[in-house]
Amino acid sequence: MTINFDTALGIHPQALALRERRTEVLAANLANADTPGYKAQDLNFSSILNKTLSKDVSLEKTQARHFGTDRRILGAEVLFRNPNQISLDGNTVETQVEQAKYAENAVQYQASLQFLSGNFAELKSAIKGE
Amino acid sequence: MSALKIFDIAGSGMNAQSLRLNLVASNISNANTVSSSEGDVYKSRQPVFAAEFKKVMDKQNDGTSQVNIMGVIESQAPTVMEYAPNHPMADKNGYIFKPNVNTVEEMANMMSASRSYQNNVEVLNTAKQMILQTLKLGQ
Lengths: 130, 139
Description:
By secondary structure, chain A is mainly α.
């Protein structure tokens, strides 16, 4: 039995990468809170993660040179947010909503990071054989 | 590392908001500057922001955008004409011209700009903490 990083670390590296992307999108929303006509964006996290997790989407290989689907590739889909209240200048950023999402995302990022740290600690103790 | 892009994005937001604050300061301090002709009188100045989509033609474009400062416009609101024949700046008909600065509006503008600036600072701080924690991963 071989231990490789993919199986040992599980979904957390992908989740971490996705959280990082989401931080970027939400930061752009907050920076453009006063830009007329700017439309707030967000990532549909659960749909991307489900797509990443489901093994059904893998393509069948009937020839040696066929490309497989790498489940680490995150086709991050960016969607526009539906505002609770529209503004006259066409901007759909609601600062309080974005702030809440940003804080939520930062906490979730830290959670993923904690899981990853735990995984590394496990690997370390396995290597040391203590 | 793409997380460093957050610094650029939040930085552009801070840049835009600080320009807005500068213009508010300019408008408020010149709110009572009088002139003897309508052409010379100080006009309220306002910034124009637009979203700048980075690398639109590039396939690597991920939809995030910085704030682009398109420029500064002068308000088209009418200036105030006041009859003050004893004023040293009065024109030959005895009128002086006052700027079209609305100080109440400018104060509200100032608070909005300052809050937006603080928002961007918070975003930057959180992103910085996230990156620092990631650097400590596995230790």
